[in-house]
């Protein structure tokens, strides 16, 4: 059975990084312009780093046409866990 495509982007873009960006404001002389500053690698998602630990530098790209989930672990001793929960 073949795959069906019902999304807004053409099927040729499936499996590629999803486009994402942030709103940016620029001033050109006296005119203010707003545009989306595109993230080159697509929409970043948190990903597990070394040995599955959470890391702010570990990122994965969301792929168009795929459901994605990600998780990581944080090691805490009893005192750290208690402090975190307060």
Quaternary state reads: single chain
Calculate the mean pLDDT score and round it: 81
Give the structural class.
mainly beta
Low-confidence runs of at least 5 consecutive residues: none
Q: State which percent range the strand residues make up.
A: 25-35%
Q: Kindly provide the radius of gyration, computed on alpha-carbon positions and rounded to a whole number of angstroms.
A: 20 Å
Give the tally of β-strands.
4
Largest sheet entry: 2 strands, antiparallel
Residue share in helices? under 10%
Number of helices: 1
The separation of the N and C termini measures 53 Å
Query: Order of helices and strands, N to C?
Result: EEEEH
Read across the widest sheet, the strand sequence of neighbours is 1-2
Tell me the overall shape.
Answer: flat
Notes on the structure:
With 86 residues, the protein is mainly beta. Helices cover 9% and strands 34% of the residues. The protein has a domain at 16-66. It has a two-stranded antiparallel sheet. It is built from one helix and four strands.
């Amino acid at each position: 059975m073949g795959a069906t495509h019902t999304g807004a982007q053409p099927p040729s873009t499936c499996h590629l990084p999803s486009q994402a960006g942030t709103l940016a404001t620029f001033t050109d002389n006296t005119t203010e312009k707003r545009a989306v500053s595109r993230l080159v690698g697509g929409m970043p998602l948190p990903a597990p780093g070394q040995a599955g630990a959470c890391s702010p530098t570990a990122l994965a790209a969301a792929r168009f046409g795929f459901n994605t989930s990600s998780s990581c672990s944080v090691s805490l001793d009893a005192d750290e866990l208690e402090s975190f929960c307060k």
